[in-house]
Structure formats: C-alpha cells, structure tokens
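Final report, results section. Input specification for complex C-07:
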Amino acid sequence: MNLTLRIWRQSGPGDKGRMVTYPVADISPDMSFLEMLDVLNERLTLAGEEPVAFDHDCREGICGACGMVINGNAHGPQRGTTACQLHMRHFTDGETIDIEPWRARAFPVVKDLVVDRNAFDRIIAAGGYVTAPTGSAPEAHATPVAKANADAAFEAAACIGCGACVAACPNGSGMLFTAAKVTQLGLLPQGQPERYTRVLGMVDAHDEAGFGGCTNAGECTAVCPKGIPLSTIGRLNRDYLRATAKRGDTPGT
Amino acid sequence: MAVTGIVLVLFLIAHMLGNLKIFTGQTSFDHYAHWLREIGAPLLPGVWFLWILRTVLLVAVLAHIGAATTLALRARAARPVRYAHRRPVQGSYAARTMRWGGVIIGLFVIYHLLDLTTGALNPVGDPSRPYANVVADFAPDRWYVTLFYTLAVVAVGFHLRHGAFSALRSLGQQTPRGERRARAVALVLAVALCAGYLAVPFAVLTGLVD
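Structure output:
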C-alpha cells in the first residue's frame, strides 16, 4: 500500500506546531497502525530527519499508552480498538490519512503526537482508590458481591485510561474516565467507605484540570476502545447528587 | 440544565394541549384563552396567576441559558487547539445541535410572543380574538410564517430528543436498560410535541380550521 500521511509535528510544548505531509510506500495491509509509523520513522531516521514521537507500550490494546486521532476518529475508524491494534487493511491504497494528537487543554502536547495525561492521575489521586487492606489476597467468598454488580463493576474497570473519551468529546470533558472509576468502586463493597467523598473529590479534580463539562453527547463511548458504557456517567451523577445532599465530609480523604 | 429544562417541557406540554383546543371551535378556543387570564380567581385577582407563571418561565429560561453558556464557554476553553480533520458525528446528531438549536428556539420564542401574545406582528393582532389571530397568522398566502413555525418546532423536537434523555441522565438515570427506556421516552416526547404543535398551523393552512 502507498499512503500519504499528514501528521501533526510539534517540537515541544512551546512550539506552535503544524501538519506535515509524508508519503509512505510499500506498507503491508497486515501491519498495525503503529508498525506503519515505525516504518516511516526508520526512513526519517535514515534520512537524518527527526522521527515522529508517539506513545506506545504493550501494543496489544491493554495498556492505554497509545492514542492518536486518525482521520478525526480517536484510535481510528475501527470501534473497540486502540491504535496499536488497528491494522492497515482498514485503509485503502492511495489514501491520505490525517494523524493528530488528543486535543484538550488538560492534555498539553509534549511532542508531536505525545500528550501529557497527568490530569488523569490527578483525578485518580483525588479519590479513585479504596482504603486497601494490606496483606495477602482475601478469600474470594469472604465478601459477597451480587453477580450483576460484579459484572457492571468489571465492565467499568476495563478502562485503560487512554484518554480517547476526552479526545472525542465535543466539550473536551473527561467524564467517562471519571465515571468509569466511580462506577467500578461504587458498585463494590470495598469502595463504600469513600463512596461520596470520592465522587466529590474526583469531579472537583476533573474540573480543576481544565476538562469541559459533560452534556451526555455520547461521542466518548463510541470511540472508547474498551466500550465503557455511557450509563456509568448516570451512576456518577446519582452519587454526586447524593454526595452534595449529604456533604459534611472532606473530599478525597 | 435538567431542572429548568423539565419546567420548560411541562409548560410545552400544557401549551400544546391548549393549542389543540382550536379543533373544538372558535367559541371554545376563545373561552379557553380568556380563562387562562383568570386562573386562580377569585383567590388571585385578575391576571396574577398568568404573571406568576410568566415569571417562573422567565427565570427557568434565563437559568437554562445561563447554564448552557457556562457549559459552552467551558467546552471552548477545554479545547484551545481545534482538530484539523473535523470528526464525523458518532453519538447523536440531536446532541450536537443543542447550542445553535437553542439559539434558534430563543429567537423563535421572541417572534412568537410578538406575533401571538402582543399581536404586534400579527395581521389581526387583537388580543381579545385569539382564534382570529391564529387563523390569520397561518393563512395560505402567509406560507413563509408557517414554514418558519415548522422549522422552529422541528428544532424544538431535536432539542427535546437529546434534552429529555440528557435531563434524566443528569438526574441519575444509571442502568443500560433504563437508558434505552429514557431514549425512547425522549423520542416519543419529541415526536408527540412536534405533531401536536404542527397540527394547528397545518390545519389552518389546509382549511380544516377557518
């Protein structure tokens, strides 16, 4: 396959950045999207140019490191897939592909396609944890959990924190990410002690990081590689309403 | 957004039911319109109830616009650099037309008040004869008025399609099955209100009501 790539190049946080066009030839349809970028980078390196910086780690769709907006779609055209698991057979020979980083004030560009997602860590630090008992793993049946709750919690726990929800949101909101963690912990008995301080703390941290507000537009769940359902945001809203009615506790303690 | 939106939707339902009284004839419709000014009498003198209702609606509309503006400004600030490749809509189309749709509805409401409340833009414009005002308004040779009303009502329909679902979600609707139900409720509400509101101008246009 021969392709024309238009890639966002930005040498550092202070640089203004621009789209740069690169032709790539002889791409196998069996390559992953990141392997195709590896081929481009090898050629750029041989030609003495600066390779395109992009985040990646496991390359099997479970770490959440990779992420780029491909032709306007976070993680590309295939649903339920990260960019590393997207294969070139989903593109046609001769196609022009636009590749951009996640665009959000809370995710400043570090270089090229690499963005700083520390804002997500700050949201987790504000309440996305349980008061963990230390020691060995507890016996499985010591704390009963209803099957339906366990399933819904597991579904939400599949979030890999890649940030595609923010990239796709017309409001630049990170509410799906926040809601996934609130749902996961709120459905399990271990998450109950901090249930209401958690939601207040995490939403406050979310807003402070500069994310936009959620308007239930549903673009996030459409691009989520793990298919986190939009209903998690309803669970967050319900916990938030209860928490603001109770108040009293200090958020995120 | 959700709470003020629900207040406005309740008004829309009552307003539509009132509009449909036009099919019961001129005397009945005019009587209903005059009764609206006297609700609450003799406990409340004159048009007090009407003004209380108008105040509640005005507060709801202003709070709704205020909240929407805050969200829009936050959304703008949250993405300082736009995408070069504009992404296709994958969620709901209605959800992406809320802001401009809301502006269009706002402008329509101003026109609508000048047309059928104060009568300033109405060919008859006599507040004591609401039936005659409506019939003159949607006369076939004033097709552009009917067209504008139709566009505005459809905009309201789109606004409700997303707005009703979004309000339920904001107030804590949280299960996937409930989400399907909430979306169905929003769709039925939007279609029913559209049909109810459009029935009147088209009945006048086709001569069913004259």
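Chain A touches chain B through 40 residues (CB under 8 Å). The radius of gyration of chain A is 20 Å. This concludes the modelling results for the funded period.
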